[in-house]
Write a structure and sequence with these properties.
By secondary structure, this protein is an alpha+beta fold. It has ten helices and eleven strands. The strands form three sheets. The chain has a four-stranded antiparallel β-sheet with strand order 3-2-4-10. The protein has a four-stranded antiparallel β-sheet with strand order 7-9-8-11. Strands 1-6-5 form a three-stranded mixed β-sheet, with no helix packed on it. Helix 7 (223-237) crosses helix 10 (276-284) and helix 8 (242-249) crosses helix 9.
Length: 289
């Protein structure tokens, strides 16, 4: 039973990233539509900035909300109410951002889709049917997007994650959309219900691995990334993903096959990490499929 209150579309408002205690409770719809439109010039100034560090500093000073709901303080155990929405980031899309936005127009439960602060990515708001199954809905959305060849940022799984003010002159807006119903839990088949061809994901993974091999690229140098990749492959392919894992681990200077085997075997026990995490880190390293 969900013991956290439900207040549809209500979320906490913060003046900037460095603020831990919210100053107000606002409507998620108003924040991404009328309020964001009123601050268009702020976002455009950031997009025009050519200095990466300065652009990051400017972004962290933008107003933000916690799309998942309202909080007494920005900590996962301090949630007061669920909003009924998931917030998903799709990064590194570049010039294809608007094309992909159009392709997502019929995605189940999609209440909003617009450009990120950088203008080179998208963020999605997905209305869900059962807030007590927040994580299960989130994993299902990640899985459905992976089937479309998209790789959501794994950091979106943090329920306290902020959504910064952004602006899109032509967003998808439909807050009356029928809620997204599908759920995925650990050890459950992650192939979307409307995906009859599980092999298509394997083909994309193999194309990525082929490019990693041809470039001798190590995408696993960070231990936490390495583990998350193991979980992603194990959850999608089970034992069949073991050699995939070895193939992407080979270019780590201290690669040890026995250690990689032990790690993968442990990850076969399951987690909530989906194959979209693999695609996310590939895209982050310039690998396309």
């Amino acid at each position: 039973m969900n013991l956290v209150e439900y207040q549809e579309g209500r979320c906490s408002f913060f003046r900037h990233y460095f603020e831990r205690i919210p100053i107000d409770t606002v409507s998620i719809q108003d924040f991404v539509t009328s309020y964001s439109a009123s601050k268009q010039s702020w976002v455009e100034k950031i997009r025009l900035c050519q200095d990466d560090e300065q652009r990051k500093k400017m972004k962290l000073r933008l107003p933000a909300i916690t799309p998942a709901g309202t909080f007494t303080i920005r900590r996962s155990n301090s949630i007061r109410s669920y909003s009924g929405f998931l917030s998903i980031d799709l990064d590194y899309l570049g010039e294809s951002a608007n094309t992909i936005k159009a392709q997502l127009s019929d995605f189940p439960g999609l209440a909003y889709c617009g450009l990120s602060v950088s203008g080179k990515g998208l963020f999605l708001l997905v209305k869900i049917s059962d807030t007590s199954q927040y994580n299960a809905h989130l994993e299902a959305v990640f899985s459905d997007l992976a089937w479309k060849g998209l790789s959501p940022d794994p950091a979106c799984k943090d329920i306290t994650r902020l959504r910064f003010l952004s602006y899109d002159p032509d967003p998808i807006v439909n807050f009356s959309v029928k809620p997204y119903e599908r759920q995925v839990t650990p050890h459950q088949d992650r192939v979307p219900y409307n995906n009859p061809n599980h092999g298509a994901i394997a083909e994309r993974v193999e194309r990525c691995i082929e490019k990693i091999g041809s470039m001798h690229l190590d995408i696993t140098a960070d231990y936490r990334v390495w583990i998350s990749l193991a979980y992603a492959l194990a959850n999608e392919f089970g034992e069949k993903g073991r050699e995939y894992f070895h193939s992407i681990s080979l270019f780590y200077p201290k690669y040890n096959r026995k250690e990689a085997d032990r790690t993968y075997t442990s990850c076969l026990k399951g987690s909530v990490t989906t194959i979209s995490t693999f695609f996310y880190h590939c895209k982050k390293n310039g690998i396309r499929w």
